[in-house]
Design a protein that fits this description.
This protein is 57% helix and 1% strand. It is mostly helical and 436 residues long.
Length: 436
């Protein structure tokens, strides 16, 4: 007696499913591979299927036996391994903290295999899936945190609750990849010991991120050491004057060198008692007198959002770096020679504004790219401006503070070493669309 017509190609019917799994038609084999009620032995059989789409369907299927997943973790196609990484990452919240069963142990083995994958894309998928999970396997998270690509290491360094203080200190002491320290500095509740290690790193962007992190615990002696170096690091000034619970002595030291606009921020702090406020005011008065400025304004004076003086009797402020860059670009004078001169003079604000102006990328995004210390991302940024690869290397070394051994060199000494598609992809990672 023949089977009803509606069961001939029904994966839920074992006999029909066997015939479909052995069919020459990949669409029929895929139906078995993706069906949640397919028998485990058929899914295991389809792991070796010639069709990538069939194997990808097996990788996506939550019914696939873990033994089959272990084979798929070594599949030749990145797309198959990527599908598996998404599925396995979603299973982690259900893993117990201890006493793993054989199946659960195989799940962990899958994760460990994917964490070692040669394709950055696979490791990045896994990192993104595990970055905030409180029960992710420590060995897997620790490996991802030490990855050679910031797009992989960054998410777990910044978010993973699995990383211990000892893990973080070990990563810092062993010379992490460019940008890793900034990710650690941005973690919630950075400990005092980790903050001290970051402060000793001489990484300008990381220390700036640490100071901006309101939840970071920074000892007073660590803060003093940062303030000792702060006159040479303008990006630290704003975060420093806005640090919560700032000691009066630290405020007085800052008042001796920060820009006038930030003096106003210091004086307007609400956590000063009257006596401390008077002492700070005296420090400001002495500084103004030494610089030959009047101790007080000559009329109604206010400050704009950038801390520049405005008011009927305020002196006209100097041209902002962003305004200067925009003006020179409009006049056709924002050349590589001009921007390179700014780089040589240490005029970071002007160089950043120039890169933003020439690339058409918002200044905040330019700052994020430079702060990653990622050679490929910074090189792609300079490529977008139309400036030379020779200048791109200088930007890597002097603006992004990338170590010479890590910075990208030009191909044949002058050409960009990446394809245009790869550079566009680097920028897409920051939400930047290709120029039309």
């Amino acid at each position: 007696m023949s089977k009803p017509a509606d069961t001939v190609h029904d994966p839920r019917d074992f006999e029909a499913a066997k015939r479909m799994a052995q069919s020459d038609d990949p669409l029929l084999r895929r139906r078995v591979a993706e069906h949640p009620d397919s028998r485990p032995e058929l899914l295991y059989y389809l792991v070796a299927d010639a069709s990538t789409d069939v194997r990808k369907a097996v990788a996506n299927n939550v019914a696939t036996p873990r033994q089959a997943d272990l084979l798929l973790a070594r599949d030749r196609e990145v797309g198959v391994r990527g599908s598996l990484a998404v599925k396995i990452g979603a299973l982690v919240p259900d893993l117990p903290a201890s006493q793993l069963s054989q199946i659960e142990q195989m799940t962990v083995t899958c994760l460990e295999t994917l964490a070692k994958d040669q394709a950055t894309e696979i490791r990045r998928i896994l990192s993104d899936a595990l970055k905030e999970l409180p029960n992710a396997p420590h060995a897997v998270i620790n490996r991802l945190a030490r990855d050679v690509e910031l797009s992989v290491a960054g998410p777990v360094l910044k978010h993973s609750p699995i990383l211990t203080e000892d893990d973080l200190l070990d990563i810092i002491m062993n010379g992490p990849i460019a940008g890793a320290l900034s990710c650690i500095a941005g973690r919630r509740d950075v400990s005092a010991s980790v903050a001290d290690a970051i402060a000793r790193s001489d990484d300008e962007a990381a220390i700036s991120a640490l100071l901006s992190n309101q939840s970071a615990q920074i000892r007073e002696e660590t803060l003093d050491r940062i303030i000792d170096e702060a006159p040479r690091h303008e990006p630290w000034h704003g975060p420093l004057v806005r640090r919560p619970k700032l000691p009066l002595r630290a405020m007085q030291r800052l008042a001796s060198f920060v820009a006038d606009g930030l003096l106003k921020v210091l004086q307007d702090r609400t956590d000063l008692d009257p006596a401390a406020a008077r002492q700070l005011a005296e420090t400001v008065r002495v500084r103004l007198e030494k610089s030959g400025q009047p101790a007080g304004p000559r009329g109604p004076v206010d400050f704009d959002e950038e801390g520049l003086v405005v008011g009927v009797e305020a002196e006209k402020p100097a041209e902002r770096p962003s305004d200067r860059a925009a003006r020179l670009n409009k006049e056709g004078k924002l050349t590589e020679k001009v921007v390179e001169a700014g780089l040589s003079e240490g005029d970071r604000a002007f160089v950043m504004a120039s890169l933003a102006e020439l690339s058409g990328i918002p200044l905040g995004t330019v700052d994020r790219i430079v702060a990653t210390h990622a050679p490929r991302a910074v090189t792609a940024l300079v490529w977008r401006t139309g400036l030379s690869m020779r200048f791109a290397r200088q930007v890597q070394l002097r603006l992004a503070q990338i170590p010479p051994k890590s910075a990208l060199n030009g191909r044949d000494g002058a050409h960009y070493p990446m394809s245009e598609d790869e550079m566009r992809w680097q920028l897409e990672f920051f939400g930047i669309e290709a120029k039309k």
